[in-house]
Specification:
This protein has 699 residues and is α/β, with parallel strands linked by helices. It has 32 helices and 17 strands. It is globular.
Amino acid sequence: MLQQAHKILEKHFGYSTFRPQQEEVIQNVLNNKDTLVLMPTGGGKSICFQIPALLFDGVAIVISPLISLMKDQVESLRANGIKAAYYNSSLDPVQERIVVQQAIDGDLKLLYVSPERLFKIANSWLKDVKVSMFAIDEAHCVSMWGHDFRPEYAQLSNIRKQYSSVPFIALTATADKTTRKDIVKQLGMRKAVVYISSFNRSNLSLEVRANVPKKKKISEIISFIENRPNQSGIIYCLSRKQTEEIASELKRNHIEAEAYHAGLSADKRARIQEDFITDDLSIITATIAFGMGIDKSNVRWVMHNNLPKNIEGYYQEIGRAGRDGLPSTTRMYYNLRDLMVLKKFATGSEQSPIYTEKLHRMLNYAEASSCRRKILLAYFGEDLKEDCGNCDVCKNPPQFLDGTILAQKALSAVRRTNEEIGVTMLINILRGSSNQEVYSKGYQNIKTYGIGADISFKDWQHYINQLINIGVLEIAYDESFRLKISNFGNEVLFRKRKVKITRAIDRPTKVKKEKRAKKKLTKNEKNFEVLRLLRAKIAKESGMPAYIIFHDSALTEMSVELPVTENEFLAIQGVSQVKLERYGEEFIEAIKEIKDAQMSTFEITYRFYQQGISPEQISEERELNIATIFSHLAKLYFEGKDINLMAYISEEEVNEVRKAYQEINDLSVLKPYFDFFEEKMPYYKIRIALTIIAKELKE
């Protein structure tokens, strides 16, 4: 059956080879075994159940948490000529009856449903459907240890018991070891084979920016976007208010953006999401709920306005960039206030110890002084042998210093204020600030007042954040975020235990403050833009997202290879037989026009020549002087093109020019030969003869 799987991959999905582990997963499912698949976002999870669904008799039931995710995947499958449908609350009664009948009649290969809908139909019409397999997408939702636990997923083990003879495949892009074990347990999977693909998304650059003031952050974000015109991006925010504020700032600077959060009406959220998917809107500022159901392949960057609450969520969110494998950018901003807010959320939850630990791991990543990708992958149990070279730490390694004296100054100030101050007050005391709050508390009288006046406020923030992160200082979240000295801190203060910290340097960003110069597009980029506009036109006409027609990666390959035959077009990765039939003619015609526009004047003449058209006719057709056409033919002949110059000159005339060459001894000029022959031999014949002689001498 694997041979058939390869044929389906090429025919319906347009790929010549499977990605790592896809083939093994498919074989395991075809062997009727339960399977757990961990693949990064954009790693090709869907194909792992979609191909077995096409090979099995009956209908595969795909359990998916979001309507938008179902809609997106079904549209994509239909675009590839696969019979698929979804059954959810977006359908009216007539549409529901049609889908039900299609499923019962076996006229579908994949049916997408939510867990809630599945439980409603499990004991009714689903009993009349020949179910081939179950696929549980976003399977981390089934585990209480997962970052997006959903109680309705917990009942899926009952479905496993009810359908004991069909294979179950659970898929997720984010699950640590604890979550993986829990998924298998909660779903009641039988001897599940676990496949873990590499989580390394090397096409994503990683960058973290700490303690950037609000105004400067907005300025950086605007510059970042201006340097990436026409690119799709998502800015994730911790609160609804932040999404609105940033969207407003962007609009004020003539950048089209929309805020997306749960406070908007369902209709408005749906419209914004649809505009983003169809490329009518490039930028979304959103709370973390946005994007889970988005399979948009051409998101070129993802930004976090705040520290995420855990690495799983962060990894999933940045994974929405560059799903087509092309280079994409991620950037995270964070400050101590983010940590305080998230810590408060974590300590107020039922799973406080787990959530708090996950938050600390996230903070460790943000404060990293070594390759960020290594830390990210290590969290998922993967060992990256070499530094990635594509994160800000690798590109700009930090400098370390002995921070013992700095730590002692900070610790002494905390101790002398009876551990009743927060970070801002601590910095104000160390810098000798004369603000009212310092004086009202009498802190100007303590011995450590002004002891760190030579260090900027921002640099003190950097150092104190590190002292908190390494455990020298602790934050009492239940005491208005006051700083406390830990056992480690006491050892530093009284026993001179050494502390190593990174130097406070402002990591340079790639963003330039000056006005962005208009970028000159390369030939391939111009080709891509022509094809992108054609794709957008077809998408509008067909009412589907542009990336479902072709991913950016397919357009990029087309813009380089410029395929003009059906076989050449099929060789492009992502072009299936169905898509060739639907879109091939328009794209090939556009590519031919691109090639024609890019042809040199010599190549155009040669194309006419190959068609058997005479130089005189070419001259007339191209509206060029006949002498110019002969100069083209001469140059093409000298460069090795298959041209018979002897059709335009006799052997005797060539020999006459040979004799003249013996006297003139120069092949680069025509006038001396014209004079030599007393103007009786036309220039074009002299040029042809000299070209023949030059090529003979060259050979």
